[in-house]
């Protein structure tokens, strides 16, 4: 029943993030409008069962691809006490050839993980991630906007973007938690306004399910008084994604990410990366699978993801091709943080695993099982879209 609901959801939504978002219509039209309302059902070991709903509406006009305007709304809850609600707008050619994206959102976590800073943090952790000692309560309403374009033409691989994000983070530490003991910068919470800019060189043959090419990205972000932030800090992100077609049904995919923060960085930013597709970690379904979400955090993060994707079977569903396949993967990551012991340089945190994929057009459902060779603990992820 769960897998059926997931497949039906992806038939109408695009897998651009960890949660479903219907802002890419699967069929291009010249004029008119579409509306989509679908249930949101998924599961992963970090958040538990996810349930809720997502809806989207699209307005089409001649000369606008894939649509002229789109709006989406989501209400999402998880069995571990997380909420993620948003209202999003997308105008692919709103300002000449420029693409405008806007998002209002509210996030809440009754158990938001915090194990301390550095590559060898929380040595007393024994695998119970629901302990108050390794969590805190967090609420964070916010908004962001981004303007993207191709300054050298629609078919040129160069893309640039600028954006602004604002968030107010409410922090409530538990009495005997690691957070309450360490009291790092940011325990007071407050606003973080952030200006970002980036450049991408994108040669992928397909953005949602590539088999050839790659994308290189460099992004910077700055927060300070002038941007509406309580904290003064900055960051830089370097990312490389490459895809090699080894045969008619086999693809080797590789991602490398390096993220560095500097200045007065609040602790709740230690786990975040910049760029168009943000990640959390080290640990979790967007960085190193098999390791608890945000298990290792610090000002500098580096991780690698290697996947061997095999396309096994193809069939038709509602007039469009669907394929099923498998994947084997190896993830590895590390963090560095000033003022703490990070262990020897070669101390990396790996995760290994395998999974299944079901895809129809741009919609991809992934089922992953992963294990940490360090602890032998394993985790399960059922979600939308490829990891990268």
Number of helices: 2
Order of helices and strands: HEEEEEEEHEEEEEEEEE
Detail the poorly predicted runs.
Answer: 1-20
Q: What's the pLDDT, averaged over the residues?
A: 90
Assembly classification: single chain
Structure summary, number of beta strands: 16
Strand content: over 45%
CATH architecture: Beta Barrel
In total, how many domains does the architecture comprise? 1
Strand order of the largest sheet: 1-2-3-4-5-6-7-8-9-10-11-12-13-14-15-16
CATH first level: which class? Mainly Beta
Q: Span from first to last CA? A: 27 Å
The name CATH uses for the topology is Porin
CATH superfamily: membrane protein fhac: a member of the omp85/tpsb transporter family
Q: How would the global form be characterised?
A: globular
List the helices and strands and how they pair.
Blueprint: H1 2-10, E1 32-44, E2 48-60, E3 69-78, E4 82-95, E5 98-113, E6 135-149, E7 158-173, H2 178-182, E8 190-202, E9 213-223, E10 233-247, E11 250-263, E12 300-317, E13 320-336, E14 349-360, E15 363-371, E16 378-384
Antiparallel strand pairs: 1-2, 1-16, 2-3, 3-4, 4-5, 5-6, 6-7, 7-8, 8-9, 9-10, 10-11, 11-12, 12-13, 13-14, 14-15, 15-16
Signal peptide: 1-20
Organism: Cystobacter ferrugineus
Main location: membrane
Brief write-up:
This protein has 388 residues and is mainly beta.
Describe this structure in words.
Its main location: membrane. One of its GO terms (cellular component) is outer membrane. The protein is mainly beta and 388 residues long. The chain has one domain: Porin. 4% of the residues lie in helices and 55% in strands. The protein has two helices and 16 strands. The protein has helices at 2-10, 178-182, and strands at residues 32-44, 48-60, 69-78, 82-95, 98-113, 135-149, 158-173, 190-202, 213-223, 233-247, 250-263, 300-317, 320-336, 349-360, 363-371, 378-384. It has a 16-stranded antiparallel barrel. A hairpin with a 2-residue loop joins β10 (233-247) and β11 (250-263). The longest helix is centred in the first third of the chain and has 9 residues, at 2-10. The chain is globular and about 60 Å long. 36% of the residues are buried. Mean pLDDT is 90; it is low at 1-20.
